[in-house]
Amino acid sequence: MGMRFRCALLACALGAGQALAAPADLLITNARVWTVDAQQPWAEAVAIRGDRISWVGKRADATAHTGPDTKVVDAAGRLLLPGFVDCHFHALLGSNPDVLHIDASDLPGIRAQIEAFAKVHPELPWIEAEGWNYSVFPDGTLPTAADLEGLAGGRPMFLTSYDYHTVWMNRAGLQRFGINRETAGVSFAEDVQKDAAGDPTGILIGFGSAGLSAEAEGELRAHLPSHAPEAIARAVRDNVAAAVRSGITTVVEPQSDPEDVELYQRLRANGELPARMQVALFHRRGTTEADLARFVQMRERFADDRLRVSAIKLYIDDVIEPHTAAMLEPYSDRPQESGSLLYPPAEFGEVLTRIDKLGFQMFIHSIGDRGVRTSLDALAAVQRNNRVRDSRHQLVHVEAISPKDIPRFRELGVTACMQPRHSAPDITGQWARAVGPERSQYAWALRSLRDAGAPLAFASDWNVAEMEPVIGIYTAMTRKGLDGEPAEGWIPAQAIDLETAIRGYTLGSAEANFLEKDRGSVTAGKYADLVLLSEDLFRIPPSRIKDVRAVMTIVGGAVVHAE
After folding, report:
1. Residue 61 to residue 57: CA distance in whole angstroms
2. Strand, helix or coil at 500?
3. Percent of the chain scored above 70 by pLDDT?
4. Could you give the C-alpha distances from 219 to 132, 142, 176, in angstroms and in order?
5. Are the beta carbons of 476 and 523 closer than 8 angstroms?
6. 14-18 contacts: CB < 8 A, separation 24 or more?
7. Which of 129, 133, 130 is nearest to 142 (CA)?
8. Residues 52-81, buried b or exposed e (16+ Cβ, 10 A)?
9. Domain 99-163+166-205 has CATH 3.10.310.70
10. To 5 degrees, how large is the angle CA 57–CA 58–CA 62?
């Protein structure tokens, strides 16, 4: 027998011995596995050993990876995907049973919902609510405190819009916060709107960009029950539990304070964070060098794959519907207004340069086309001022964009972190009126950005929209509301295909957050973060995708959700 042949036999025997010595802990077989791995796009079985995928291949070969203690899951031909990575998920918001969710389509309906909720909850000192849509009110107008008169026995009210950027209060609520005609500003909003006589209208603008800061949180906590520490901890627990039920295995929390990260750590220590978390710390305008030094310390303390601080969140503008996002040209329904930047452009470039030098990734809220351009200009300045590195900075939302700026994402290596569900026509009525039909052709320009080679990452922006990734995938493909309307979709030229949509919620989001070595595809050696769906997205019409469920979610080889 020749030496080469004997060596080959020995190698085969050793390989077989290793397989028998270390069989899989968990084997999923009889599946349709779309791996999101270009080297092996489709498979039928996945073996898991410890917290990693040990093998991906054909069903016929799966028995070589089983042992007496291997747990075998028959997927019954269902679709297995990499676990979803939601790259913009506000774990601190929503899921509070003492906060009303408004879904009425007119003011009488909102009033009826508030009154019914108040009767069921006579014990609540405040009526808190979220979810009201700007489209309810005519001609781009905003509601007022007077619209809430006569409700809930006069209890104070604090109602946030669906995008969490605008607060609507009644007169009692304004009085509790001490907001009157002399009030120049508050910690939890950018602007207190006033009428022609100088009295507050009940509307506060820029809550999302100011209200989620440590300073603001202290003032809110003094008044609102939903901001009590135990209520926030419960919300985070409930949100992350719901995320894994939706197939999300990594949550990227985009706007936290150091104190919030300490909360996440306590929940993790108690076994109450079943998903992985990656966190961005909030950089409000005026953030000091001492604050940045603390951010660096937090990054050093929290640096593993279960809880990691890796990025910094900033805002360049606000939102479209109340005309506060920065636009290159005036709003179509407000020709005298074009929104505003939250930083002068030169200062913004300096701020980003300083943060980039510290090695942080940045998430920049950029919604209007002028906001997007200003952010891209600032990131170009960063590359001129600092050494060019693999920074993967993100522009978040990118709702309106000039066609001239679309190629710049690829040129600058900037990720467009986008929320497909936000583009649905059952949400965007006032948005479309404000932007107008010509600029709306580039509303949530998923296809244009994809075709230009922009890195794309998708998210829910919970609790602005539903957290289920399948709803985002459905919207990205159809550009329709949950009611299936309009039949042709809204701006169908910006719809994308199923593969692109899934990638945006898996490998695209993983790459956007430096996670692709361990997550985002079903590949041997990566974490066993997987989701098994109730139906095969590739074999059903797009109209049904929104109703598909996650029947099993696996994080690090452990089943954290199963129906």
Report:
1. 7
2. helix
3. 95
4. 23, 25, 11
5. no
6. none
7. 133
8. bbbbbbeeeebeebbeeebeebebeebbbb
9. yes
10. 85
The partner residues of 366 in beta bridges, in order of sequence, read: 397
**If DSSP codes are grouped into helix, strand and coil, which group holds residue 313?**
strand
Q: Helix 258-269 and helix 229-245: axis angle, to 10°? A: 60
Would you put residue 96 in left (φ > 0), alpha (ψ -120 to 50) or beta? beta
Dihedral sign computed on CA atoms, order 373, 374, 379, 383: positive
As separate numbers, helices (DSSP H) first and strands (DSSP E) second, the chain gives: 18, 24
**Residue 16: per-residue pLDDT:** 39
Length of the chain: 563
Residue by residue, DSSP assigns 52-71 as EEEEEE-GGGGGGG--TT-E
Domain boundaries of the chain, sorted by first residue: 99-163+166-205, 229-558
Whether residue 186 has pLDDT greater than 80: yes
Name, in order, each residue with C-beta under 8 angstroms of 468's C-beta and a sequence gap of 6 or more: 246, 247, 460, 546
Cα gap 420→457, rounded to integer Å: 10
> How many angstroms separate the CA atoms of 452 and 455, rounded?
9
The position carrying tokens 């978390």 is 277
Cα 362 to Cα 197, 365, 416: the distances in Å are 41, 10, 12
What is the average pLDDT across 495-501?
98
Residue type, 541: P
What is the percentage of the chain residues whose pLDDT exceeds 90? Answer: 89
47-78 tens-digit pLDDT: 999 999 999 999 999 999 999 999 999 999 99
DSSP 32: E
Phi/psi at 539 (nearest 5 deg)? -120, 10
Angle at alpha carbon of residue 250, lines to 244 and 256, rounded to 5°: 110
Structure tokens given for 52? 């990693």
Q: Which two tokens stand for residue 466?
A: 């539903």
Phi, psi angle pair for 280, to nearest 5°: -110, 135
Range 370-398 average pLDDT: 97
φ/ψ (deg, to 5) at 468: -65, 120
How is the chain split among helix, strand and coil, in percent rounded to 5? 35, 20, 40
- Under DSSP, the state recorded for 458 is E
Answer for the pair 20, 67: CB distance below 8 angstroms, yes or no: yes
Q: Which residue has the tokens 């997927």?
A: 75
Q: Which amino acid is at 496?
A: I
Total Cβ atoms within 10 A of residue 371: 30
Cα separations in angstroms, 163 against 115, 239, 323: 23, 17, 13
Q: Reply yes or no on whether the pLDDT at 4 is more than 50.
A: no
Strands 550-555 and 558-562: antiparallel
What single letter denotes the amino acid at residue 91? Answer: A
Q: What CATH homologous superfamily does 229-558 map to?
A: Metal-dependent hydrolases (3.20.20.140)
Q: Greatest CA span in the chain, whole angstroms?
A: 102
CA–CA distances in Å: residue 271 to residues 115, 147, 327, 526:
39, 45, 45, 22
Q: Which residues pair with 169 in a beta bridge?
A: 158
